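Justification of computing resources. Each target in the renewal requires a structure prediction run like the one illustrated here; the chain below, 179 residues long, is used simply to show the kind of job we budget for.
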Amino acid sequence: MDAMTTQARAAVAGAVWPIPPERMAEVDLEKAAWTEISELIAMLTPQERLAPGYFVDPVWSVKDLVGHIRAWQVEARQQLIDIGARSYRPRDIDIDDRNAEVLHALRGEPWERVWDRAVAARSWFLEAWFQLREPDDVAAQWVRKAGAEHYAEHLPRLRVWVSELIGLRVRPPLDERDP
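Resulting structure tokens:
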């Protein structure tokens, strides 16, 4: 792949930085998965984005999912910046505790703010990733933890949940007490 092709593909991926050809496959995966998440969410009404049921235990809505993805993008961005600055120090993160903190913090947040912050966090995450001059295994781990691989963990359930919510819109009432 020549440099011009790489630059053109980087522009399509939303990047303004040169992306090495060896990273383009992962960039393409991230973009495709983010696009699918965005398109699924766009199919929902504002009320459906807040409806509990994406997960049941603990109870998550689509808003909670978006906040969760954002939190891991923010974390990965910081780790990638540290890796690039050669100041990275590995540390253990209790995933369940971190997810519970995020869920708690989202309780009073409106959808628009959560979505806007997630879009911004993705941009910052991508910026930190694309600016790495010498990505290593640790950087790749953080990219997987916050990028395409992480999205792929959530997409199957999101597809089902969006389908269920849309199905509720179009089903006839069961009886006069059913809205």
